[in-house]
Structure formats: structure tokens, C-alpha cells
Amino acid sequence: MSSLDASKLFSVHGLVAVVTGGGTGIGLMIARALEHNGAKVYILGRREDVLKTAAKQNAIHGNIVPVVADVTDKASLEVVVSRISEETGYINLLVNNAGTLGRRHNAINRPPPFGNLPGQFVHANGEDDLSTVDGIRDFLWKDEVSDWDNTFRTNVSGIWFPSIAFLSLLNKGNEKQNVVQKSQIVTIGSVGAFIRLLGTSFTYNPSKAAANHLAKMMATNFVQWGIRSNVIAPGIFPSEMSVGQGKLDENNKNHIPMAIPVEEIPLGKAGDEEDIAAAILFLAGKGGKYVNGNVVVTDGGRLGIGPAVY
């Protein structure tokens, strides 16, 4: 018999989840939401001290487990998979959250009629004349191929290799049948995947577009084993990417205290923990069990005010 009780529709009780980049920002918000509602959550990242602080300060049931790992290193991923195989034998959910912004290009003005929008991060870098084509060319030519490689390595390869590493454990989650919903990969993308205006980086947006398409390909090709793949595409949320590294509070959280002009985000604010928690609890819980190959946008209306491909 079906239940319309919200506590059942969005329950993740008994779920076993892995969250990459789970020590700070959106990854930590997701880990907190899942663990608060009954899941066991392994948080992966490269900084052991950050992971341990996140687990200690945020696990209300003692079920956030810090694990040092590099999502772009196959040997590192194999060690994590082996550990979780021994401890639980399966997982129900993989959240691919680890990401990087890449080299910033935000000294460049936006084109008309968008150049006067607030929040465009325009500033003079003191080296290049960015009012001319030649100046723009010289500024952008400072990119190295490695800058682009590193961004795509984290934002695309860093989705693919964890997904493949945990594929068998996700399948075992289906065999375990500890929850009614099928196992799932949730990729944390970005509305940047759809935005044509330059925000901060020419490398970031196309890498997130690639991540979206990869997630959709996994939805199509892994469905034969009952393994789903969906995307959450956030707008601006407090994280080390939006606020800057080294600005964590005692609970590993970042903050965006100021209001954001409605010309930039129609709802006038950055997203908060409740916004991202609602999205992950919908997809991960029973209420989202019929969803596969979807992109859930949570951006305060940002995609509706400029050129985009959504």
C-alpha cells in the first residue's frame, strides 16, 4: 500500500551512501542531510583533518565516516572500495560532489546588455588591457593546457572513475534490497553547465556540461542493472568554491552573509542547506525512486535571467 506520509517518502533510513568531497560545502550539506535522516555516510576527500572535523562536528548519530581518497586516483579509489566492501558489503548511493573551479577568468567584462549586472566579479588585474581584443587574447593565452586538463580531470574524470569503482557495490545494494529504491549515482553538477555568460572561468562551465552529459549516459547504459544516475545542478551556495579556501567555521561550514541582487538571482539570496537537503532527500528517498537521467536545478531562478541552454 502506498504512503503519502512525507517522513516515508523522503526517508533515507538504512541507506548506505558515499559522498565525494564530503568534508565541506555542498558535499557536507548532503552528508549532514543524509546522516540526520538515518543513512550511514562515508565522506571522501584528500584532507584528513578536514574530514575528521566534519565527521566529529556534524554527525548526530555517529554515522559519518571520514575516508581519505583522491577521486582522480584509481589506486586510492580501490582502497576505499575494498574497505567499504569489508565493512558493509554494499552501497545504495554514490554522490559525486568533488569539483574544482579552475583558473579564474573573471577580470573580463560581460558583453552588452549584461555588463551592468551586479555580481559580475569584474576587476582590473593590473597587467592586461582588457578593453581590447588583443588584451583579452593576451590574458587568456596565459592559460596552460594543464589548467584545462586539471579542471576536466576533477570535474569529469572525478565523476567517471568513482562511479565505475563503486559500480559493483551499487549492484550489491540492489541485491541487498535494504531499501525499496534502486541504487543511484547522483552527480553534483552546476547551473554553470547551462549558462553562456562568463561567471568566473571558461574551463568550469564546459566541464560541468560534460559532467551532465556523462551522468545522462550512465543513466541510459547502467539502467539494465537497475543502477540509476541523476544530477543536482546548484546555483550559488556557500562553499569553498564560492567563498574561498581557508574560510571555514568550526563546523567546516562556509557562509555567504550578504543578500544577492535580484538582477543576479531573482530570489535575492544564495542557496542554503535546506535547499540542497531537500533536493538530495527527494532523489535518494522513496519519493525519487522513479527518477532516472534527470537534472534537478536549484538556483533561485538564476537560469531565467541570461542566455542559457537549459
From TrEMBL:
The chain crosses the membrane at residues 12-31. Keywords: Membrane, NADP, Oxidoreductase, Transmembrane, Transmembrane helix. InterPro entries: NAD(P)-bd_dom_sf, SDR_fam, Sec_Metab_Biosynth_SDR. CDD domains: SDR_c. It holds the Pfam family adh_short_C2. One of its GO terms (molecular function) is oxidoreductase activity. Belongs to the short-chain dehydrogenases/reductases (SDR) family. PANTHER family: 7-ALPHA-HYDROXYSTEROID DEHYDROGENASE (PTHR43618), SHORT CHAIN DEHYDROGENASE_REDUCTASE FAMILY (AFU_ORTHOLOGUE AFUA_5G12480) (PTHR43618:SF18). This is NAD(P)-binding protein.
